[in-house]
TrEMBL record, chains A, B:
Keywords, alphabetical: Fatty acid metabolism, Ligase, Lipid metabolism
Protein family according to the UniProt entry: Belongs to the ATP-dependent AMP-binding enzyme family.
Domain AMP-binding enzyme C-terminal: 440-515
Designated name of the protein: 3-methylmercaptopropionyl-CoA ligase
GO function terms (MF aspect): ligase activity
Family matches, as PANTHER family: ACYL-ACTIVATING ENZYME, BUTANOATE--COA LIGASE AAE1-RELATED
Species, as recorded: Qipengyuania gaetbuli
SUPFAM superfamilies, sorted: Acetyl-CoA synthetase-like
Every AMP-dependent synthetase/ligase domain range: 17-392
Taxonomy, superkingdom: Bacteria
Any GO BP: fatty acid metabolic process
NCBIfam families registered for this protein in UniProt: PRK06187.1 (NF004837)
EC code(s) of this entry: 6.2.1.44
Amino acid sequence: MLGAMQDWTMRVTHVIDHAAREAPDREIVTRWADGSETRTNWQGIRTDALKMAQALQALGLRKGDKVASLAMNHSRHLVSWYGVAGMGGVLHTVNPRLFDDQLEYIVNHAEDRVMVYDAAFQPIVDRMRDRWTTVEHYICFDSGEHTTSFEDWIAAQSGDFQWVAGSERDPCMICYTSGTTGNPKGVQYEHRSTVLHAMAGLQPAAFNFSASSVMLPVVPMFHAASWGLPYAGAMAGIKFVFSAVNDPAVLHDMMLKEGVTDSAGVPTVWLAHFQYCDANGIDLPPLKAATIGGSAAPKFMIERLMKNGTRVQHAWGMTETSPIGTVGGPTHDWENLSLEERVVKTMKQGRPIFGVELRTVDLDDNTKVLPRDGETSGALQIRGPWVVKRYFKAEEDAVTEGGWFDTGDVGVLHPDGTLQLTDRTKDVIKSGGEWISSVELENAAVGHPAVAEAACIGMFHPKWDERPVLFVVKKEGADCSDRDVIDYLADKVAKWWLPDAVEFVDDIPHTATGKISKKDLRDRFADYKLADG
Amino acid sequence: MLGAMQDWTMRVTHVIDHAAREAPDREIVTRWADGSETRTNWQGIRTDALKMAQALQALGLRKGDKVASLAMNHSRHLVSWYGVAGMGGVLHTVNPRLFDDQLEYIVNHAEDRVMVYDAAFQPIVDRMRDRWTTVEHYICFDSGEHTTSFEDWIAAQSGDFQWVAGSERDPCMICYTSGTTGNPKGVQYEHRSTVLHAMAGLQPAAFNFSASSVMLPVVPMFHAASWGLPYAGAMAGIKFVFSAVNDPAVLHDMMLKEGVTDSAGVPTVWLAHFQYCDANGIDLPPLKAATIGGSAAPKFMIERLMKNGTRVQHAWGMTETSPIGTVGGPTHDWENLSLEERVVKTMKQGRPIFGVELRTVDLDDNTKVLPRDGETSGALQIRGPWVVKRYFKAEEDAVTEGGWFDTGDVGVLHPDGTLQLTDRTKDVIKSGGEWISSVELENAAVGHPAVAEAACIGMFHPKWDERPVLFVVKKEGADCSDRDVIDYLADKVAKWWLPDAVEFVDDIPHTATGKISKKDLRDRFADYKLADG
Ligand SMILES: Nc1ncnc2c1ncn2[C@@H]1O[C@H](COP(=O)(O)OP(=O)(O)OP(=O)(O)O)[C@@H](O)[C@H]1O
Ligand SMILES: Nc1ncnc2c1ncn2[C@@H]1O[C@H](COP(=O)(O)OP(=O)(O)OP(=O)(O)O)[C@@H](O)[C@H]1O
Ligand SMILES: [Mg+2]
Ligand SMILES: [Mg+2]
């Protein structure tokens, strides 16, 4: 060696060690399902994680073994993120909203040996127990009514433990996609990818975490690593406020009481919060920053948050990308922009953070790379250290030559690097050889004062192949006609994009992650016929 | 493989690729030594770096070869940071303020094959040319008067080049310490350490870089990788404003004209700027953030910047740590603190950013790890991925068991992780078996309205071993007596710390990096005797 820097294996344990050492007293507050509250801190989380790692070893678990969690957001769930990784294990965060068949498939596929779960999900455990063939031990986060309680379980350990060492390419977490088509697919996050993703997530252009941040993440810890917040937050030593229930009244109360500055969730979560405030005639919470992702953030949502003095971070990503790909926030010309200009900019999905790289290719010929001209839309591909190469147990890589992963999304890249997502490959509507963005139609429609939710799908048309039909749920007590909606859209989208029909429905189906399920909507209206179709 | 994330080699070329792709038009402005100005952008920097890499290969340079730069801050110097690394080479940033013997030693020790230099340093080149035995080619950044000009040299290339690939542990830069004792020592920064250091440097607790940042770094590109700013800035796609001269009038002018939001420099640089503003009866520039490091930031400096609305980031680090170790900025209780409390907090050196770890050990027994109690001071040690393991060409590692590097600094660690630097191991004054901090005495003394600069060293004392003597340079036109200074210090430090004598001098010697040179001061006063000594 002619001279070098120190060796340092990028392990997730460095993250919790850092938080416990540099921000030991910074609080982690939990509001539990039963209404009670507990407070711990980074030091406490680390101590409990050490005990949990010991307790797992005592059960016979070894490096590479998988532990499932079936839980909402709370401090004990957080302990398990670090405890399992610290034992060299892999945490499988199971989405409790999945169907039984999916729950069976993913737990068995992952070969989970231990399951830690919330008492609220006891019915799921009771129902699935016989079908989960690999699970040897059940631990309940809240109580010992039906099985060992988490607190008793770890209390039996001393916490005198050395984190299990290993390669930085070892997995530390596995998340499954929700499987809107076929079986869910497992994505293994590595120690290295997790640390890099969190380091990138800290930056001002992304979560902008500093010591003074107080974050209440509404995005669940069981989906896409909760956008990496529990890792990035630990790196910056922020205060976390968790709520095990997603009731807006509870969230609102916690936000005010605990001085919450930052929150993150999918659009429907923000929508529910708006509705709660409106119904009670109260102001939105005084948040400094709101991250919206998982689906496109509609215009009125961005505008309302900005008017509230809240910075909006519009993030795009997916389970396969750990999940942060792009984040939209203030651009360098921000101070010279009007509110309207800021809102319109933020409606796009932002720019890739250092580490990941995007490109678009032709929808019909994926060897043709498209220009970043702000106009041409194509299939969105991504590559980088926190992007999946191969799904868990898959026979082959999920990437093309050059290491690109196809996202299944359709978008436009702008010359300044901004991504504008227009649709999903499978939802885009092809009319007369041209593409119509179902997402843009939906987002325009929800701006109408009487529209609560809207979903657009393509329906067969003998002349145009497909034409858009818009399904609308009206706001409670509000009314409007199909003509009203079409008129409203008229100056917002191209004329030939206007839906051929507007259908009013009582509800729109959602996926396990709270997004509109076009697949279910298509199934429900399989026999639908256009008037001129 | 059971499923994994993508492979991604952490190379510095990803940084410039990212900047050129995601912030192609963000400007890089240079104010040259002759008063002229040029403007390029990240896209332009990358194109020129590709050409430079080609031009180096055309000269016969290969992977691992070293290229020296002898230059101030400007866009062409920046090009060479990425061009050399992109060719697989190692850039050796030479400090032009070193003595000839040191210049000879380091260039030959590094075995630099090419030297790129500013016309302003032509005298150094002329003087040293025969002594630099390994340098085969000289390229001048500004003109072709004496040798090939940089612009002509790279203009001969097409820029159609693929970055040279390699391991992430390959070196990409080498910096030498200024060698206040013995020969300078070379520290090799690796691609990996550089990327990690820059990712960490982006965060709100450190440089807080976002798309809207406009940074004028006064810290030279020839010292300690300019604190990593050229890398972190590229990751965030910030605008850079460089000045090839450090005249405060020029810096001030550029700051106002280019909308500079951030600057960084050692305390003397900030002091010179204050004096310029005072002499001309003008306000400080409206900076959002000022990073001060390299020496302790004195109280009045922090206070004045804060009153100006500027956030102060007080950074500690060294060539051996890439260099960022800790940064002091807003803590989580910031909003509840008075200005005075904020100033006092910021005088400490801040907290380690994720990646590095600190501890203190007993000054007399370095196997004894000291508590983080905010009181016990000891020898400061550091470890992490961007901390040196072995100096270039050294026979053995520079770290102790457990991988700790001894910084040569003395400090106190507080329970909340804050580092308070009290002195250097070799400057600390031992009086009657107790330690006195020379730095604290100096920093208190410069608060006196008549004191321009102060340096404190220990002088032999028959009873106490050593007693502090304070050397003071008075401000132009100001006057004070030794009694005045002692009286002023009386309520600022412990009584037994008060200097035994205050000596007024015309100047205090400085090192090549602009810091007080205690070694030279001690040499100058080698025959000094205390009155009762
Ligand atoms: N900001 C955004 N704007 C628009 N769409 C988004 C945004 N963020 C995420 N998405 C959509 O969500 C997808 C990622 O979904 P995610 O991985 O979180 O869930 P999943 O379990 O794979 O379920 P599904 O893909 O079926 O929604 C993206 O591919 C994209 O289509
Ligand atoms: N914020 C700070 N407060 C006090 N001292 C600092 C601070 N930052 C850096 N220093 C001092 O500067 C040293 C690092 O110096 P650096 O590596 O930049 O230069 P060098 O070439 O090694 O020269 P020298 O070590 O002789 O000053 C640290 O070890 C510490 O003593
Ligand atoms: Mg998906
Ligand atoms: Mg040094």
